[in-house]
Design a protein that fits this description.
This protein has 13 helices and 21 strands. With about 425 residues, it is α+β, with helices and mostly antiparallel strands. The longest helix is centred in the C-terminal third of the chain and has 35 residues.
């Protein structure tokens, strides 16, 4: 078995894990990130770069480089009830350079962060390496064992940072208590080609008992079809032709394009979960992102919170990790910093699921709820959902003092 030692080992090379690894390495901390896949070229559901992440990249001096990658900026979002459009979000007040959501393939974003991190001394990214078990000594987590392309590897570390998603095996092995908040909906994900003359803005539609979200991915629409919890089988039982008719009736997309959905394998089920750990840490271990709190797709803010968890963790933990003085108080600070925005965001998501989305599925001819009617009538009010979705309740920025002079000099070559 290969054996390694490092200050921090991160399980999961998604937005939370890679961002945390990059920022810690940039601050002079030795970091190893483990990603179980051979590359990032996979079909992600969350291909959105929110204003909060754009601001983080701006603070790091990387925004122009990031936005040189192919992307589509959307600045407004509307929701139509029947044939009545209701504008609900306006991101433009969030800044000329960051007042939009960038639709960018997540593999491009992850490749970009990995490339920036690779320039930092002490950063190691191991692909095709999957975390398997924790190493514990005297009740403290002291590392993990993983399987890689060359065989098993044992990595000892001052901190195991768990960022490998809502189905994390390491989180379960740590024995941390998970509280389920419930979700009355699931989502079917699929894509349909997009014509050049169509409205480029992303939008939501409610018509004839169907709720559909359309996200502009350039040459195609990424679409989310909302169903009651565990209702996907009933949709499938009615057949693909009936499903295509419902999509066409709600969106106005012609039947010929919808024939692209010619197999149920092209329609993926997202089983919606809303949960969070009561305690995110044990001595020697910390969970962030979906491993600490699974978010509803309402608002698309899951990546938002995951990246901000990573920034907060790097801000708080860089110095004690670099100095070898990490304590449970440091881990507790990360949860204290990030738990409040997580709890409030989940509360809003559950409220919207229970009071807006599920009733709309049950009563398809109901008028828009009063809050949405107010957003349509008073444009200024659209700034509030924009801040909630785009920035979150406690936006994080990399701490200026988090970068050691030696690490910065090595990174820049000066």
């Amino acid at each position: 078995m290969e054996q390694m030692m490092t200050r921090c080992v991160i399980s999961g090379g998604g937005p939370a894990g890679l961002m945390a690894g990059f920022l810690l390495a940039r601050a002079g901390v030795e970091v190893v990130v483990l990603e179980k896949h051979r590359d990032f070229l996979r079909d992600f559901r969350g291909d959105t770069i929110h204003p909060s992440t754009l601001r983080i990249m701006e603070a790091l001096g990387l925004l122009d480089e990031l936005l040189a990658l192919p992307h589509y900026p959307f600045r407004h979002m509307e929701f139509s009830f029947g044939d009545r459009p209701v504008p609900v979000v306006d991101f433009t007040p969030l800044g000329e350079r960051t007042g939009f959501v960038a639709m960018m393939p997540q593999w491009d974003f992850l490749d970009f962060v990995a490339q920036q991190a690779a320039a930092c001394p002490g950063f190691t990214l191991r692909m095709e390496t999957e975390s398997e078990t924790l190493i514990e000594e005297g009740g403290r987590v002291t590392g993990l064992r993983a399987g890689g392309p060359s065989g098993p590897v044992e990595i000892r570390a001052d901190l195991v940072l768990v960022a490998d998603g809502r189905h994390s095996g390491l989180r379960d092995a740590a024995g941390l208590d998970l509280r389920d908040l419930g979700a009355p909906i699931d989502v079917l994900w699929f894509r349909v080609s997009r014509k050049g003359g169509e409205n480029p803005e992303s939008l939501g539609r409610l018509k004839d008992g169907s709720i559909i979200i359309q996200l502009n991915r350039g040459d195609y629409w990424q679409m989310a079809f909302v169903v009651p919890k565990d209702g996907a089988e009933a949709v499938r039982a009615n057949g693909l032709a009936a499903f295509r008719r419902r999509v066409g009736a709600a969106t106005g997309i012609e039947a010929a394009r919808l024939e692209e959905i010619d197999d149920w394998d092209k329609v993926k089920l997202l089983s919606v979960q809303v949960n969070r750990l009561t305690r995110w840490w044990r001595e020697g271990l910390l969970c962030i992102g979906d491993a600490a709190h699974a978010m509803s797709p309402v608002g698309g803010v899951g990546i938002n919170l995951a990246v901000q968890d990573a920034v907060a963790a790097a801000n708080i933990l860089a110095a004690p990790l670099r100095n070898g003085t990490l304590s449970v108080d440091d881990l507790r600070q990360v949860q204290h910093r990030r738990e409040w925005p997580t709890r409030v965001t989940q509360r809003v998501q559950v409220l919207l699921q229970d009071r807006v989305i599920r009733p709309a599925l049950d009563a398809p001819d109901a008028p828009p709820p009063l809050p949405l009617r107010l957003l349509a009538r008073v444009p200024y009010l659209r700034r509030f959902p924009a801040r909630f979705i785009g920035l979150g309740l406690r936006p994080e920025l990399p701490r200026a003092g988090a970068v050691s002079q030696a690490a910065e000099q090595a990174r820049t070559g000066r």
